[in-house]
Design brief:
It is a single chain. By secondary structure, this protein is an alpha/beta fold. The protein folds into four domains: 234 residues, TIM Barrel (Alpha-Beta Barrel), CATH 3.20.20.60; 82 residues, M1 Pyruvate Kinase, Domain 3 (Beta Barrel), CATH 2.40.33; 117 residues, Pyruvate kinase, C-terminal domain (Pyruvate Kinase, Chain: A, domain 1); 91 residues, Glucose Oxidase, domain 1. The chain is built from 18 helices and 29 strands. It has an eight-stranded parallel β-barrel with strand order 1-2-3-13-14-15-16-17, surrounded by ten helices. The chain has a seven-stranded mixed beta barrel with strand order 4-7-6-10-9-8-12. The longest helix has 18 residues. Pathway: Carbohydrate degradation; glycolysis; pyruvate from D-glyceraldehyde 3-phosphate: step 5/5. It is an enzyme of class 2 (transferase). It comes from Cuniculiplasma divulgatum. Belongs to the pyruvate kinase family.
């Protein structure tokens, strides 16, 4: 079997996102991470430089150019943050005591630099500091200064994180530094931008518009990490291109025991609309310093896969951890094991797009599962066909065939999708041309049954309008069949496939175990067919030869339909 083909079969359908950092910045390590299953590299702009983004772009392009490996880049923007500004380095917070929170120029115990935050607060709102370690409640509202009462003791540090769960804060989705990274990402054809602290769909629509005005085509990943985003999840999933369940900050904004149920709720909402899902934060956190994960971490990973995630994300494990390769391999091995046991994943209930494309994607899944197709081939110009078919969670792996390197890299984040770029693409390319290219590069093998979804018969890459069942290779003969599917060489000695008329093998002393299968031309002799059947061999009889077949040719017998392919 071709090594490229073997590579696909060994890779998990669940994709792996690795965060770029000092621990994995060397090209040889990154290449091995790809071989272990990484399909996307994330750059956390809160801890990275533009030079590092350029390094990632160079590596991505090199992999596509030299090895036909299409990995994507996700630029994770820092986004808006609320920080507590103090008059000194620290402030001792005591339970039951009152403190003032004011805009930066006001006289108060704690200041906030973002405009209009204080007047947005209402009596009873929670205000959290230091990643939720210090919890206070608004007891008196005000336009510029409000009063807080603490329920715990703690030490508040200057510039410490601040969260206001469930309250919309008009602070903008992008900061100036984010805009610079966004501009560079458009220039470098980055595949994904992750938006931090999303509160509603309007913010996503705004960034989509900004990218469009820059002439870009970047997909957005909405990070669900605030209670406000949870409350607006219905609108967010209809506006975004992908969802990330960012459990770290989500666990600050709500009680930690609610996070797992919230994760399942977010994933269900996203998947019901056919939107790809990434589960992130502390997947294998112990592997930052340990060579092996905890049992609880493996259970967490397993449950994320069973809950229908498209991708799993590693953060510190690959950015600064001591065992980045081992962490990736743990995710890959766990994914492959879980996928080998469980296949009945839930389908989306609706799409925001066309009902025709929804129906074609659903038909593709049904067909491929019913006939045990070796692969699904999704002809896609922009990636939407591959995304929709992926969301149906078919058992077969999906080959996303596209003329675009950018689309190939982007679709590599979708569950079960493996990209293939058509070289020297022409608009009048046919399904036969596509299958021949895939066979030529070893992505599929002659005789394999393939479900193909595409656009119009004369324009395969125009929309999603049809689905068909095909077998790779050239049809050379057809007849009546018995036995199992089999491949081999024609008339090449013991263990090969006999092809000829009945008379040559009708002798009572003929040893039917000499051949693995029989293709019998002309009128069959019933006793010969019975002997072949008794020997447990495959047979095509009353065969009509459609194309020349020579001794030594490789063929595949599809006994389900009585076709022979070469």
């Amino acid at each position: 079997m071709n090594s490229q083909k073997m590579d696909i079969l060994k890779r998990p359908k669940t994709k792996i996102v690795a965060t770029y950092g000092p621990a994995c910045s060397e090209e040889n390590i990154m290449e091995r991470m790809i071989e272990y299953g990484v399909t996307c590299f994330r750059l956390n702009t809160a801890h990275s430089t533009k030079e590092e983004l350029q390094n990632l772009v160079n590596f991505r392009d090199k992999m596509a150019r030299e090895r036909k490996m299409y990995v994507s880049i996700m630029v994770d923007l820092k986004g808006p943050e609320l920080r507590a500004l103090l008059n000194g380095d620290t402030l001792a917070i005591l339970s039951g005591k009152e403190y003032t929170l004011g805009q930066q120029e006001e006289k108060a115990d704690i200041h906030i630099a973002v405009d209009d935050v204080v007047k947005s607060l209402k009596k009873g709102d929670e205000v959290l500091f230091m990643d939720g370690k210090i919890r206070t409640t608004v007891i008196q509202e005000g336009n510029r200064i409000c009063k807080l009462s603490s329920s715990v003791d703690g030490i508040l540090k200057n510039n410490g994180r601040m969260n206001i769960p469930g309250r919309y804060i008009p602070m903008g989705i992008l900061q100036e530094r984010d805009r610079e990274y966004l501009k560079m990402s458009v220039e470098k054809n980055v595949e994904y931008i992750a938006l931090s602290f999303v509160q509603n769909r309007n913010e996503i629509d705004m960034v989509h518009d900004m990218i469009g005005k820059m002439g870009g085509n970047i997909h957005l990943v909405a990070k669900i990490e605030t209670k406000q985003a949870m409350d607006n999840i219905e609108g967010i999933v209809k506006a975004t291109d992908a969802i990330m369940v960012a459990r770290g900050d989500l666990g600050v904004e709500m009680p930690v025991h609610e996070v797992t149920v919230s994760q399942k709720y977010i994933m269900q909402k996203a998947h019901s609309n056919g939107i790809p899902i990434i589960v992130a934060t502390q997947m294998l956190e112990s592997m930052v310093s340990s060579e092996s994960p905890t049992r609880a971490e493996i259970s967490d990973v397993t449950n994320a896969i069973l809950d229908n995630t498209d991708a799993l994300m590693l953060s510190e494990e690959t950015a600064i951890g001591s065992f980045p390769l081992e962490a990736v391999k743990v995710l890959s091995d766990t994914s492959l094991y879980v996928e080998s046991f469980y296949h009945n994943f839930e389908e989306p209930s609706e799409f925001t797009g066309s009902r025709v494309t929804f129906s074609v994607a659903k038909s593709t899944k049904i067909l491929s599962d019913q006939i045990n197709a070796h692969h699904i081939v999704a002809c896609t110009r922009g990636g939407n066909t591959a995304r929709m078919v992926s969301s149906m969670r078919p058992s077969s792996r999906i080959l996303s065939v596209t003329p675009s390197r950018l689309v190939a890299s982007r679709t590599n984040l979708y569950r079960g999708v493996f990209p293939y770029v058509i070289e020297n693409f022409k608009e009048d390319i046919s399904v036969k041309d596509v299958l021949n290219a895939l066979v030529g590069d070893g992505m599929i093998l002659k005789g394999e049954r393939i479900v193909v979804t595409s656009g119009h018969p004369d324009h395969l890459f125009a929309g999603t309008a049809q689905v068909s069942v095909l077998t790779a290779g050239t049809l050379v003969a057809r007849g009546y069949a018995l036995g199992k599917n089999i491949s081999g060489k024609i008339n090449s000695g013991k263990g090969s496939i006999y092809m000829g008329n009945c008379e040559k093998i009708s002798d009572d002393k003929f040893d039917y175990s000499f051949y693995e299968a029989f293709i019998i031309t002309g009128n069959p002799i019933r006793s010969v067919i019975q002997k072949i059947e008794k020997a447990g061999k495959t047979c095509i009889y009353s065969t009509i030869v459609l194309n020349d077949v020579k001794d030594g040719d490789d063929v595949f017998i599809d006994s389900d339909i009585g076709f022979v392919y070469a």
